[in-house]
Amino acid sequence: MNQDKIMKRRMITAIILLIITLIALIIFIALYVDETRRIQETYRRQYTTELRHVNEEIAIYLDAEGDFDFHYMRITVYMANAGSYAFLIDDYTQKQIVINEVSTCLIKYPEQMKTKLEELQKAVTDILADLDKGYDEAKAIYESIDLKGK
């Protein structure tokens, strides 16, 4: 009879430990999901910040304020930064490709891209307004580049 009481106590203890472990697991999963969501929001915020910087630098460049090469380099850097943040955002694969292609064109074909900065500014403005046509406009820009030219 003593053996039965010991076994019942052990089973009750095992069940209580199982319940505590399951509760801890559920809490851990909830915290993980929440932290992942917050990190994604941070990446999206940084992405839009970099695109805003691109817009500001294009405006400065087009208004002929200061050193053109310096401002063009800043446009290129901000676009590359936006591409880096797009890489970190979930479900942004197609958008990331567009941003990276534009960034590559800014680096490899500066003479051609300098003539397309107004179009790029319009595309970035539409992207910031959360319009998908902005990505289509940006895609049209890099598709219009002569890849065999400068």
Secondary structure elements and pairings:
Blueprint (H helix, E strand, L loop, with lengths): L1 H61 L5 H21 L4 H16 L1 H5 L2 H12 L4 H11 L7
Helix pairs in contact: 1-2, 1-5, 2-3, 3-6, 5-6
Question: Any overview of this molecule?
Answer:
- This protein is an all-alpha fold and 150 residues long.
- Helix content is 84%, strand content 0%.
- It has 6 helices and no strands.
- Helix 2 runs antiparallel to helix 3 (93-108).
- The longest helix is centred in the first third of the chain and has 61 residues, at 2-62.
- The mean pLDDT is 91.
What's a concise summary of this model?
This protein is mainly α. Helix content is 84%, strand content 0%.
**Radius of gyration from CA coordinates:** 26 Å
Helix content: over 70%
Largest sheet, if any?
Answer: none
SS-derived structural category: mainly alpha
Order of helices and strands: HHHHHH
- According to DSSP, the number of beta strands is 0
